[in-house]
Structures are given as structure tokens and as C-alpha cells.
């Protein structure tokens, strides 16, 4: 049981600190689970390429996905609120928030194109936030994985530029810009993650490179 707990702790840390941008903030976690992060990077690259080739479909898919996420979050919120009881602190506020999530999600599913403009603004804020986060992580990687930090830095700069491009292109490009920019974001995040996972093996001076000859 102790071994299982120790194995799951790095993933919990990754989810808490780096999953939002696809990159783990702890290089040791990246080193330990490099195979899975390589697979994750390849999947992101493929999804990004598909979204770039079909931006309109990707935009519509993003709107529908957000709608389902809002509905699921609202339903779970309602269940939690009623299980806690009307006497729990913040009952009415939490109830209102859960209902609004369900209504917002339903509106997106009913007419996903109408919600594209709002999602475009949200996407711009997300890209700017993740770009700043990646920027901080890139300089953290500089001393730990020097071969990969420039790729992470480049990915951060791309996110920030894309965020400003979304804001500058509103509202005319909203119908396709979400799918295109989400695709670019996924593509470069996947590349940064894949390169980081490849180079993290040799980052630890105590761990030999896969290509290094074994000592007699």
C-alpha cells in the first residue's frame, strides 16, 4: 500500500501544479513518467494538427465540449449542495452557481455558435494565463533540463501571442479562430512536452543516457 501511495503522489502533484498547461512543474515527475508524457505529447500534436486543418469543426466541437462540461459541473454541484443540506454555509450561493452552470451549458448545447464569441474571450484569457505559467516554468527548466527549456519558452511565447491575436481579431474571426488557435496551442504544447520528455533522461547527472555505453 505504501508503494502505491508513493507512486500516485507524483501524479497528484502534476495534476495540481502543471496539468493545466500540459507540462509538469516538477522535472523529476517528467523524468519518472517520461514514456507516458511522450505519448501525451504525441496525442496533443495529432489533435492540434487535426484542429488546424479543420478549424470550423474544432471551434464547434470546443463550444459543445464546454457546454457538456458546464452541465456536468452544474449537476455535480447540485448533488453536492443538496447532500450538504440547506443549513450548510453558502447553500443558496452554491445552489445558484450550480443552476447557472447547467443553464449556461444548456444554452451552449442548444446554440453552440452563439456562444462562440464568449468562448473566444475566455480562450484568450486562458492562453494568456497558460503562456505566463509556461514562461515561469521554462526558466525553472533552464537549470534542470537545459536542452528543452527553449522549447518550453517558445511554447509560452506562442500562447501569449495567440492570446493577443484573439483579442485583436474579435468579433469577425470568432467562428474559426477558436479551433485554429486551440490547434496551434495543442501542437506546440505537445512538441514542448515531447522534447522535454526526450531530454529529461540525460538531465540527471546520476542517470546514464540510453545511448551511453555500459561500464564494465
UniProtKB/TrEMBL annotation:
It comes from the Bacteria. The chain crosses the membrane at residues 35-54, 60-79, 91-110, 116-136, 148-168, 174-201. One of its GO terms (cellular component) is plasma membrane. InterPro entries: Acid_resist_chaperone_HdeD, DUF308_memb. Pfam families: DUF308. Keywords: Membrane, Transmembrane, Transmembrane helix. This is HdeD protein.
Amino acid at each position: 500500500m505504501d508503494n502505491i501511495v508513493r507512486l500516485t503522489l507524483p501524479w497528484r502533484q502534476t495534476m495540481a501544479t502543471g496539468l493545466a498547461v500540459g507540462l509538469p512543474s516538477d522535472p523529476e515527475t517528467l523524468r519518472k513518467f517520461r514514456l507516458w508524457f511522450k505519448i501525451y505529447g504525441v496525442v496533443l500534436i495529432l489533435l492540434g494538427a487535426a484542429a488546424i486543418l479543420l478549424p470550423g469543426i474544432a471551434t464547434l466541437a470546443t463550444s459543445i465540449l464546454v457546454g457538456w462540461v458546464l452541465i456536468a459541473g452544474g449537476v455535480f454541484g447540485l448533488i453536492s449542495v443538496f447532500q450538504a443540506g440547506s443549513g450548510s454555509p453558502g447553500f443558496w450561493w452554491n445552489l445558484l452557481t450550480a443552476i447557472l452552470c447547467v443553464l449556461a451549458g444548456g444554452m451552449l448545447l442548444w446554440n453552440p455558435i452563439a456562444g462562440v464569441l464568449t468562448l473566444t474571450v475566455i480562450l484568450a484569457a486562458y492562453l494568456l494565463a497558460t503562456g505566463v505559467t509556461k514562461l515561469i516554468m521554462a526558466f525553472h527548466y533552464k537549470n534542470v533540463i537545459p536542452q528543452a527549456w527553449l522549447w518550453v519558452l517558445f511554447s509560452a511565447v506562442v500562447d501569449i501571442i495567440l492570446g493577443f491575436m484573439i483579442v485583436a481579431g474579435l468579433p469577425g474571426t470568432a467562428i474559426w479562430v477558436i479551433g485554429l488557435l486551440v490547434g496551434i496551442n495543442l501542437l506546440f504544447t505537445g512538441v514542448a512536452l515531447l522534447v522535454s520528455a526526450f531530454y529529461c533522461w540525460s538531465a540527471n547527472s546520476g542517470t546514464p543516457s540510453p545511448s551511453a555505453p555500459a561500464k564494465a
